[in-house]
């Protein structure tokens, strides 16, 4: 690693102030950032440790909205009775991220802000139509937040403070793991609401997480497996690598979508 300064704010205002330092970088769970620094692929002047800020942690429900603080760990999301009762699919998703070491350090805000193209949480945020809250007081719809590979609508020095998830009638996440990394080779999050369905896909596209509009339209009209009869996702724009061709990933999108719909009941 290169030399850097370490700031440990105890409140959100202190964190915002610390982020004004030259080449400041926020540190949440560090599951992506620390390996990046060890490989000397990043050289921040100051790391701003968010783990000591109580107001960035915690889970609460108000009506039909589940709010999760940005510094809340994956393990806490997975084990939360509040999440399990409101959106069981979200708790199940969190419980399958990485391994116990990752789940006990990694945070939901870090995952969403990093926007890895194979990460699980972005598909949940997009599939549930979440709203992402920031240190600048902005509330950004998930549809406007994810802009591409490792790119989001966050401004420089802006922090992701919380994610607010509408509670669906039913939801399910299906993940085809890459066995070495446990990231999603393809992951599909399906959510059913009174006004329609949402289908979000991660791990498959060269452009990052996306919504499958054709499947959403069919499921909004008739939320059943038969609504997807004869439907397949095109291979164009899908990732192709040693783990799977674009055609293979496109096929998995269809398979996992059907499994998720079946699991929704």
From TrEMBL:
UniProt KW keywords: FAD, Flavoprotein, Oxidoreductase
Residues of the FAD-binding PCMH-type domain: 1-170
Any one GO molecular-function label of the UniProt entry: oxidoreductase activity
InterPro entries, alphabetized: CO_DH_flav_C (IPR005107), CO_DH_flav_C_dom_sf (IPR036683), Diverse_Substr_Oxidored (IPR051312), FAD-bd_PCMH (IPR016166), FAD-bd_PCMH-like_sf (IPR036318), FAD-bd_PCMH_sub1 (IPR016167), FAD-bd_PCMH_sub2 (IPR016169), Mopterin_DH_FAD-bd (IPR002346)
Keyword Flavoprotein: yes
PROSITE patterns to which the protein is assigned, alphabetical: FAD_PCMH (PS51387)
A Pfam family per the record: FAD_binding_5
Record carries keyword Flavoprotein: yes
Classification via PANTHER family: XANTHINE DEHYDROGENASE SUBUNIT C-RELATED
Name under which the protein is recorded: Carbon-monoxide dehydrogenase medium subunit
Native source organism of the sequence: Albimonas pacifica
